[in-house]
Specification:
Elements (H helix, E strand, L loop, with lengths): L1 E6 L5 H9 L4 E3 L2 H13 L4 H16 L4 E6 L2 H4 L7 H13 L2 E8 L2 H17 L14 E2 L4 H5 L16 H5 L2 H5 L2 H9 L4 E6 H6 L1 H12 L16 H7 L3 E6 L7 H4 L5 E2 L1 H8 L3 E10 L12 E3 L9 H7 L3 E6 H6 L2 H8 L1 H29 L7 H23 L10
Parallel strand pairs: 1-3, 1-4, 2-3, 4-6
Antiparallel strand pairs: 5-8, 7-9, 9-11, 10-11
Length: 419
């Protein structure tokens, strides 16, 4: 039977989504697709995206011999209306149950100290630029021109990034804190109005025993989940975020170009968003690439699906591979590939072209990765948070923790591991 897993606060929604995508008997919905449906329903008062999603899922389930639908509600806290028992929230969840056929709900609950640290780190990362390699940082720019290629292919990656300092203020850190961190009891009461099959999933047990947690969710949902190729892979670390938030967009000849691929590189312009329109009229087409764990590429659906390149970049990105304990490759965004002409698609999927991409961009990515990994670990963390901001978090979380512990003591909530 179909189910929904709810991120109640910094609770590894990406890891759940990727693991559900790897299940052969589950139609896994991209996290951000469902968030857009929720936003339209709750904040824009439109159920049209919900209707379209229901129609789509019904057709996909028929084609997949009745496979279950697995939904991960990533943006639950910022998208739901306040207070949590708002009638529109209840109506939304009822439509999720009836229109999408979702019969079981699982609330992933994180240890409150871990939630505090993760949320503060997330707010600091937001103030620091959301893990993005900023313009001017080791040759990672908003736009590349063909004249840059010789420098990019040389041994000189570029100078060190300019120093910058993060000075978080209390207002910047605590903005939206209650929507994002508060009141598990209210969340449970909201879902209990709609779902009889409602369970908590302890985040810490998922981290320690991922296979057992995935199986337990499947058992409670009535949908066996036996495929676990990625359950033990790191999917929510700093290293993952540095890859996710730093794709590379290339403009390639729209007709595929001519001549050898090495010569063809001289004609390639490499803009990011700011420069795409500038070259659009010159017969170019954009393709987005992203470095990723090799086995994750075909299962990750964040911001579209990616096609594996088949190029092993592990030796070119040794720090990334060592941090994650996995081989590294890169993928190409399927949506853009589908829009290319046959010639352009053949051009970018040629093994020689893909190997050349790795030769040019893996060293640049590596240099930025090493710098930003150190910067985030050493300078963008809890030690930089003002005491007053910490108190705001701790006061609210302490209250929430007492409510949650009282509910556990009174056995008002059920765990996915309960008999």
């Amino acid at each position: 039977m179909s189910f929904i897993v709810v991120n109640t606060g910094r609770a590894a929604s990406r890891a759940f989504a990727i693991n559900f995508s790897a299940q052969r008997n589950v139609l896994s919905l991209p996290r951000h697709d469902f968030d857009r449906v929720a936003k339209a329903y709750l904040q824009e008062q439109s159920d049209e995206p919900m209707k379209r999603l229901a129609t789509r899922l019904a057709a996909e389930r028929d084609a997949a011999a009745g496979a279950a639908v697995g939904i991960v509600f990533h943006g639950f806290r910022p998208l739901m209306l306040a207070p949590f028992d708002h009638p529109q929230n209840v109506a939304f969840l009822k439509d999720v149950r009836t229109r999408l056929g979702v019969e079981s709900a699982f609330l992933v609950v994180r240890d409150y100290d871990g939630l505090l640290l993760s949320q503060l780190n997330r707010r600091l990362a937001h103030l620091a630029g959301n893990w993005a390699f900023k313009a001017g940082h080791i040759s990672w720019r908003d736009a590349y021109s063909s004249g840059d290629l010789d420098a990019l292919q040389s041994d000189t990656i570029g100078g060190p990034p300019p120093d910058y300092e993060i000075k978080p203020d209390i207002e910047g850190l605590t903005e939206g804190v209650w929507e994002r961190t508060g009141r598990f009891a209210s969340i449970w009461r909201l879902f209990s109005q709609v779902f009889d099959r409602l369970y908590i999933v302890p985040y810490e047990l998922f981290v320690k025993e991922p296979d057992a947690t995935i199986r337990a969710i499947g058992d409670k949902a009535g949908t066996p989940l036996h495929d676990h190729p990625l359950s033990s892979v790191k999917l929510n670390s700093l290293s993952n975020r540095l890859m996710i938030y730093n794709p590379i967009t290339l403009n390639v000849p729209a007709d595929g170009g001519s001549g050898s691929y090495k010569r063809g590189w001289k004609d390639i312009l490499l803009p990011q968003r700011a420069a795409r329109k500038r070259y659009k009229s010159q017969g170019e087409a954009s393709v987005r690439f992203r470095f990723e764990i090799t086995d994750v590429i075909e299962h990750c659906k964040d911001w579209g699906t990616f096609i594996p390149s088949g190029v092993d970049c592990t030796h070119q990105l040794p720090e990334v591979s060592a941090d994650l304990g996995q081989p590294i490759s890169f993928g190409l965004w399927r949506d853009q590939l589908d829009l290319l002409s046959d010639g352009a698609r053949k051009y970018v999927m040629d093994p020689v072209f893909l190997e050349r991409f790795a030769e040019v961009f893996a060293p640049i990515f590596r240099a930025n990765y090493v710098f930003f990994r150190r910067r985030y670990k050493e300078e963008i963390n809890l030690r930089t948070v003002p005491d007053a901001a910490r108190k705001i978090y701790r006061d609210g979380i302490a209250t929430d923790m007492r409510e949650y512990e009282d509910m556990l003591a009174r056995k008002e909530v059920k765990s996915v591991f309960d008999a």
